[in-house]
Amino acid sequence: MNKNINAAVYERHGNPAEVLRVESQPWPKPAADEAVVKMRAAPINPADLNAIEGKYPGRREVPAVPGFEGAGVIVELGAGVKGLTNGALVILPHNIGTWREALAVKEVELVAVPEGIEPVHAAMLKINPMTAWRLLHDYVDLKKGDWLIQNAANSAAGRAVIQIARELGYKTVNVVRRDELIDELRAEGGDAVIVDGENLRHEVKDATSNAPIHLGLNAVGGESALRLANCLAPGSTLVTFGAMSLQPLKIPNGLLIFKDLRFRGIWINKWYDNATMQERMDAFRPLFEMAKRGLLKTKVEKTYPLPEAKAAVTHAAQGKRSGKIIFEFSD
Fold first, then answer.
1. Spatial distance between the Cα atoms of 231 and 153, rounded to a whole number of angstroms
2. Span 206-211, mean pLDDT?
3. What is the number of other CB atoms lying within 10 angstroms of the CB of residue 193?
4. Which of 61, 112, 161, 278 is the most buried (most CB within 10 A)?
5. What digits encode the pLDDT tens for the residues 39-62?
6. What is the pLDDT of residues 262-319, one digit of tens each?
7. Among 56, 170, 272, 304, which one carries the catalytic annotation?
8. Apex CA 126: angle with CA 99 and CA 1, to 5°?
9. What's CA 260's distance to the chain center, in Å?
10. Nearest 5°: phi and psi at 194?
11. Would you give the distance in Å from CA 327 to the centre of its chain?
């Protein structure tokens, strides 16, 4: 194949709609240990926009192709590739730049997706559902019937927490900022959905019949995180994985002295880098099973072709969306 591909590229950090452009690049050639993947879908996550702005850890050398997440189909195998086949749907690594039509990737970095999962859903399993899975497994030993509480419950990660927690038998208190999200998140399986405010602690007590809550999940920071911490039982853990308010956590001494709370954090890219292939697959397997049954579908608001990258990132930067903005590539 001698044809060219389209790739989104930025040569300097800044406003994504201003610095991003789409250029023609040569068709990738695989090394012996690589496969060529033709992209099928790649979402636009907040971290992608932050990376283009230069506000994300591990800044890539520019010029760079953005995109931490995506799925595609193998169309060519390097001479030494043994464990993959042409036509297989695969999930891409986070450090390679997925906003392009095709790319060559090392075999060991690809995760094969079982049949029965659409490329668009496979493309969005690695960051938000995997974060949710780790949040529910790595910090507090939850039992069936136990409660947890999260803010930003309508985010992609928040919805994945609701879906996975329900499957595992845990109960969720879901804190949101808008009334119109209450019925929607209850329909998705949220046990209690409460609009954030000064009265949160009492509303949570009422909603849970005063059950102890040992795990809090914070994607907002600032006052919202403090209200979450105040809902937790003594000896509990608050895990931070996002900072939507851009405000720091301000924890009163009393929450540490009298409640002995623990404060932890997770960056899924780092977990992924440190995990063995076995550990990755052990986590992907249940996510694949749930996705096959239609339980882990990330909502999509709009799809764009790659040449409309500027319009796509502008749309993705808007608040109050009903779902992800994604690039979809022709079959």
1. 16
2. 98
3. 23
4. 161
5. 999 999 999 999 999 988 877 788
6. 999 999 989 999 999 899 999 999 999 999 998 888 889 999 999 999 999 999 998 7
7. 56
8. 40
9. 30
10. -130, 135
11. 16
Q: Among this protein's residues, is 56 annotated catalytic? A: yes
Place of tokens 């709370």: 261
State percent of the chain over pLDDT 90.
89
Q: Count other C-beta atoms under 10 Å from residue 97's C-beta.
A: 22
CB 67 within 8 A of CB 97: yes
- Are 176 and 237 spatial neighbours (Cβ–Cβ below 8 Å)? no
What the chain holds in terms of domains, given with CATH numbers, is: 4-124+298-328 (3.90.180.10), 128-268 (3.40.50.720)
Q: Is the pLDDT of residue 4 over 70?
A: yes
Q: Is 40 helix (H, G, I), strand (E, B) or coil?
A: strand
Distance CA 267, CA 57 (A): 10
Between the alpha carbon of residue 217 and those of residues 59, 174, 178, 284, 302, the distances in Å are 26, 10, 19, 21, 28
The two three-digit tokens of residue 191, written as one number: 């046990």
- Local structure of residue 205 (DSSP, 8 states): H
Q: Are strands 300-304 and 89-91 parallel, antiparallel or unpaired?
A: unpaired
pLDDT score of 2 more than 60 = no
Cβ-contact 136, 168 below 8 angstroms: yes
pLDDT for 147 beyond 60: yes
Q: Are strands 111-112 and 89-91 parallel, antiparallel or unpaired?
A: antiparallel
Element housing 84 (H / E):
none
Please report, in angstroms and rounded to a whole number, the separation of the first and last CA atoms in the chain.
16
Tell me what pLDDT residue 59 has. Answer: 72
Beta strand spans in 87-130 (E): 89-91, 102-106, 111-112
